[in-house]
Write a structure and sequence with these properties.
Largest sheet: 7 strands, antiparallel
Shape: globular
CATH superfamily: q2cbj1_9rhob like domain
Number of strands: 14
Length: 239
């Protein structure tokens, strides 16, 4: 109970928290083996020298969902957030050992929906691989959360996420509006089998790989928001 309270406080104050030992080595091996067996001809699979990604991960590799949502993760979500949340987006990232791919400082400002339609408070819109994304009212982003499941040991050398602690409390903000002299940058080191939980408005980035170590992450976004009747969540799933 004490640990749950600490993690709740971390999420509220800092915008993120880290928990290790959510998955055993055998569970991680089973997840990786399932991903490796998947049909990579699916258009949601993207593979380059710098990155292998599977968008709409649970749709592309449905059998992995049962492995991801083990008893520990389900219990943790229940204790931290209650039982009203559902999955709204899932992505698998594999940053290879020699990857030069990096991500600049940003907030996660969009949600994935089934169609584009002009609605008050929703916009701008983007389309990627026939997937519609839109920036919703800030209240939805403030309430959503993301879980990042680490399949490899992750540190600064292989592109661990770096975050600006507490930046989620600034709501939507521009990178150049931050007073960088007074901001606290954290490198989110996570062990294989561990997870990071974060708010989407937390300012975050990742560097290029320098240690020749692979970094594989399952990124899952959760919400409990009811969208306008005209649109629906593109990937809504009960876990």
């Amino acid at each position: 109970m004490h640990q749950t309270t600490n993690h709740c406080e971390n999420i509220t104050t800092n915008g993120f928290t880290i928990l290790n030992d959510i998955y055993t080595t055998n569970e991680i091996d089973a997840i990786i083996a399932t991903i490796n067996k998947a049909d990579q001809s699916n258009p949601t699979f993207r593979k380059t020298d710098d990155l292998f990604a599977i968008r709409q991960f649970f749709k592309g590799v449905p059998v992995v969902k049962e492995l991801i949502f083990n008893a520990k993760l389900k219990s943790l979500i229940q204790n931290l957030f209650g039982d009203q949340y559902f999955v709204v987006k899932s992505i698998y990232f594999d940053k290879p050992e020699k990857s030069n791919w990096f991500v600049a400082w940003h907030q996660d400002l969009t949600i994935s929906v089934d169609k584009k339609i002009e609605l008050p408070g929703y916009g701008p819109w983007t389309v990627k691989l026939n997937q519609f994304a839109v920036q919703p009212p800030v209240e939805i982003l403030q309430d959503n959360f993301t879980i990042r499941i680490h399949l490899d040991d992750t540190d600064a050398g292989n592109g661990a996420l770096k975050v600006i602690s507490g930046s989620h409390l600034k709501n939507i903000c521009r990178v150049d509006s931050l007073d960088w002299k007074n901001e606290t940058e954290n490198i989110c080191k996570v062990s294989a089998g561990g997870i990071m939980i974060m708010r989407p408005l937390l300012m975050h980035a990742s560097n290029r790989t320098t240690s020749n170590k692979q970094r594989r992450v399952v990124h899952i976004e959760f919400s409990r928001a009811e969208l306008p009747l005209e649109i629906s969540w593109a990937e809504k799933q009960i876990y």
